[in-house]
Structures are given as C-alpha cells and as structure tokens.
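Narrative summary of target 7.
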Amino acid sequence: MFFSFREAAKRASPNFDLRIWATNLEKALKAYRTGKFAKAHQLFKAAADEGDLMAHWWLGRMHQMGQGVPVNDAVAFNHFRRAALAFDGREPPGPLMGAKLDSLVHVGRYYRKGIPGGNLKRQPQRALRIFRTAAEFKHPGAQYGIGAMFYDGDGLNKRPRRGMRWLMLSAQKHFPQALAKLGDIYWAKRDQPFNDVRAMMWYILAQNVARPEVDPEIINRYNELAATLAPQIQEQSRQMALNWSRRFPPPPHRQLTQPVAETTTE
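Modeled conformation, tokenized:
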C-alpha cells in the first residue's frame, strides 16, 4: 500500500555524506537504506519523539512490515494515525504532505479491516469516509479501497460497476493491489471468452510493480497463473499488458521491477 510518499521521500532525502549535525531523521534514512533496520528504528523513534511526523510514517511502515521490529499492526496504526491527524488538504504538495496523505490511507485501511487483538474494531463506513478524503487528492490506494469496497459490498451496498470504475482509476496509476484485484475479477469469470487472457494481463502488470516485501501474495498468484495457462494465452496477455502500459504509462515515481517487454518470434 505504500505508494505516493515513498519515492518522494527518497528524492527529498537523497544519499548524502553524514555530518555530525545531521538530524535523527537523516541518520535514520541512511541506516534504513543500508539495511540497518534496528538502528533506523531507534533513530526514527528519536525523531518522532521530537515531533517529526515524517518519522511517524516510517515507523508505521516498519512496524507494519516487521523491519527491525516484530510485525505489530496496532503500533503501526498509532504511528500512521499521528501523521494522519495532521493532514491538511490546503497544505502545499511535498514530501511531508505526501507522508500525511499516505498515512491517512493506511488509517482507512486499518478501519476497513480492523486489528484482531489490537482493540480496533472493523469500521467500514469510517474507512470509506477516509478513503474518499484521500481520493480527492488522487491517492491510488484510496481509489483502490473505495473500488474494492463497492465491488465486494464490504460494509455497504454492493455496486460492482461503481467499484470497477474506482479500481480502473487506481489501476491506471499502476497500483499493484488494484491491478491484482482486476485480475482476480476476470479470473473468477474465466468461463467467458478471453477472460483468462484478461486476468493474466492484469497480473502481468501487477507483478511488474509489486514489491516482494510488500505484496508477496501478488507475485505468488502471478506465478500460479503463469503455471496454469498455456503459452499462447500468456503471449496474448503480454501483448495486452504492453498496450496498456503504452496507453497508461507508470508515473515517474513508480519504477517497474521488470519491464513489460515486447516479445519477438523467429
């Protein structure tokens, strides 16, 4: 679910020569990028204690993913909530605004699912309100959340067509969970002509932007479909994925792990 803010944060704080006067946030980012997660967590915590809201975003991420600390969604929620409460749509765009917006989406996600054993009950209507706020700023995670809730009837009246429209908006930004959701939708209807091709197309696009540490289930599902479908179907799917990528290029900050390459025949 980490999308809009991560790459902006990298651009805002590129690699630098560490000076004695570097802030705790800068030291934490350097430690994080070199894989020293325990040290990074300690420094992000120090920065958060100083009131740095961007540090709260990073701490939410680390507790959500188990980087340097055990996975703890309740702690992650609290950190994201600290940053989300400061969100102000009138704030000029930038890394800090992006961190707050992304935190808002994560808070919505937790309200949608709840946290078992974490004293947070599922509140889908509250999640939908939060997603709508973030969607006004075109956050693909919020668009995906709205689309999935409408399509599945998750806590509200089921409206598949409306859900598909929101999922498509998110997919056009190459948000991996939206792409995978579309793949699952078409796979469930593969008894209809060409839906197996469409399902594989969406999963090709999804696995190209999915990060193994964030969305391993997308990559696993892609491998399952690739092992199931005939080569000619996969070739059709690759061509469709290539055409989609040409029509809707990935945003500059969304780097593909593997490009959707053209295939050649001899």
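The radius of gyration is 19 Å.
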